[in-house]
Amino acid sequence: MKALWLREVQAILGREDFLKWWQSLVDLEQKLAAVGSRFDELLAQVNLMDFRAEFTQKNAIDSLYLAGEYEDTAAQLLAEASEIENKSYEAVANFESQRIHVSDLFSRMGALEHNFLSAQTEAREERERLEKELREATVVYERENARKLSLWEEVEQMWARSLDINLGVSERRVKSKRARREAERLFKEAEQHKHSSKALQAEATEAEQKQKEIQQAIEDLRTSARKLFGCLVGEEFLYWPRRENVNEVYCVPINDHAEGFNIELRAKNIYLISRQRGVEFIEPLPPAGDVPEEEDGRIDDFFRRGRPGENAV
């Protein structure tokens, strides 16, 4: 790598082919940044769609399980309602038997009451006997009538419980149908998310391939700079060994850097670095009046022509 004078580096930076090269590099890096940003966004969307698809499918499965639970509960309640219905038939039969029995008691009690009222002219003993029979018949009637009412209350309770259960069965069947419809909707939505994820993934793959192509174009452009401009090419700088001082190197930023280095850097400006520290410590060029006198061309003449009298015969 040939060391260059400052004026030679400045001349290279002002050449049309360098300016075209630099602009091409800047354009490619901007495209790479845009494609990279789009690629990151697509990956984020892919991950989001995958999560949505998984989450939605889980909700669909949960809804399907819920529909099954509603159906199982409805079947259990229906069995309980059937059992109560069967018991209610027996309870109605018991009530009907008791009703007939109580009707007979009532008829008997009415007959006894009639006999008692008709026996006012009878002997005292006879009236007392009839009165006792009437009281006993009345007690039996009231007891059996109360039992009849209790049996009817039991029948009504059974019917109310059966109605309550049947209404519960109906509700759970409706909920089961609704849960199944919701599960179907969620499964479709999950498939839509999966389809969107695949489309985004395909687009992300294209963006990734585009990234590689741009990166390769940038690499090719960087490689060409070494041959075109006689410099070393870093990721962010171009370097030329400094002819004025073998321990120093001219470095030129490819892009602006407001921060990240010890000083603010401007693209295509020339800075100084040492061979040992590199860009860890960057210095601006000294003022024009501080440029070594050797740069005025006499050293070049010395190396081209040799010392005075050296070529004399």
Structure overview:
- Helix 2 runs antiparallel to helix 3.
- Helix content is 72%, strand content 6%.
- It folds into 2 domains: 6-37 and 215-305, no CATH class; 45-210, Four Helix Bundle (Hemerythrin (Met), subunit A) (Up-down Bundle), CATH 1.20.120.
- Strand 1 (232-233) and strand 2 (237-241) form a beta hairpin.
- Residues 293-313 have low confidence and may be disordered.
- Strands 1-2-3-4-5 form a 5-stranded antiparallel β-sheet.
- The chain has 313 residues and is α+β, with helices and mostly antiparallel strands.
- The chain has helices at residues 6-14, 16-118, 124-229, 298-305; strands at 232-233, 237-241, 248-253, 271-274, 283-284.
- It is rod-shaped, with a radius of gyration of 54 Å.
- It starts with 5 loop residues before the first helix and ends in an 8-residue tail after the last helix.
Observed structural traits:
313 residues; Four Helix Bundle (Hemerythrin (Met), subunit A); 72% helix; 6% strand; rod-shaped; disordered C terminus
Short description:
With 313 residues, this protein is an alpha+beta fold.
Widest sheet: strand order?
Answer: 1-2-3-4-5
Terminus-to-terminus distance: 35 Å
> For the record, what CATH class of the largest domain applies?
Mainly Alpha
* Secondary-structure element series: HHHEEEEEH
Radius of gyration: 54 Å
Instruction: Give the helix/strand class.
Output: alpha+beta
Overall tally of structural domains? 2
Shape label:
rod-shaped
How many helices? 4
Unreliable segments of 5+ consecutive residues: 293-313
Q: What is the CATH topology classification name of the largest domain?
A: Four Helix Bundle (Hemerythrin (Met), subunit A)
Strand-residue proportion: 5-15%
Tell me roughly what share of residues is in helical segments: over 70%
| Main beta sheet strand tally, sense and closure | 5 strands, antiparallel
Question: pLDDT average, as an integer?
Answer: 88
Instruction: Tell me which CATH architecture of the largest domain applies here.
Output: Up-down Bundle
How many beta-strand elements? 5
